[in-house]
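Researcher: I'd like a candidate sequence for this fold, 171 residues long. If you have to choose between options at a position, lean toward the conservative one.
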């Protein structure tokens, strides 16, 4: 009697478990019996293609979307660099990078003239990055050139400032 009760309970649980599933998922798919037969022989169960493809492949056009994001980020960094130059650098170096900003009259030594071709040839981009972030005192130059430690974590903005400084030497 006890065995019949246990068998009835197992059957009832199986039926209830089957009823609680989503009906679209509980219907066997074509070829499901072949897969089950393959499993009994010790073969690996093939993964349904519909479930694997969306995760394994990038969305259509994913690469094309990355380029505009990179270009947009570069444009944002360039815009931020120009803004920072206008707010922080131009007061001494001048809007055109000639070292003739409003504050330059009171400074000794005078701010760097970025249009000087000889200086442009002599300085490396890394030198410029270092002085922008560390300031003059940080690289053995005039302590009047203030550091910009907030830019240490913004290399794209620092590179934008370097590009802007380099552009003054092309005039």
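Model: Candidate sequence:
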């Amino acid at each position: 009697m006890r065995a019949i009760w246990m068998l009835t309970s197992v059957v009832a649980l199986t039926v209830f478990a089957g009823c609680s599933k989503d009906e679209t998922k509980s219907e066997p798919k074509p070829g499901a019996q072949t897969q089950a037969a393959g499993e009994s022989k010790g073969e690996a169960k093939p993964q349904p293609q519909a479930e694997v493809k969306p995760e394994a492949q990038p969305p259509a056009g994913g690469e094309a979307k990355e380029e505009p994001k990179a270009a947009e980020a570069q444009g944002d960094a360039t815009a931020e660099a120009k803004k920072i130059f206008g707010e922080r650098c131009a007061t001494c170096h001048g809007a055109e990078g000639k070292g003739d900003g409003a504050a330059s009259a009171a400074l000794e030594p005078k701010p760097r003239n970025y249009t000087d071709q000889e200086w442009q040839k002599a300085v490396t981009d890394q030198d410029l990055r270092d002085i922008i972030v560390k300031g003059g005192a940080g690289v053995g130059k005039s302590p009047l050139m203030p550091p910009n430690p907030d830019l240490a974590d913004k290399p794209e903005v620092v590179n934008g400032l370097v590009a802007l400084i380099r552009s003054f030497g092309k005039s």
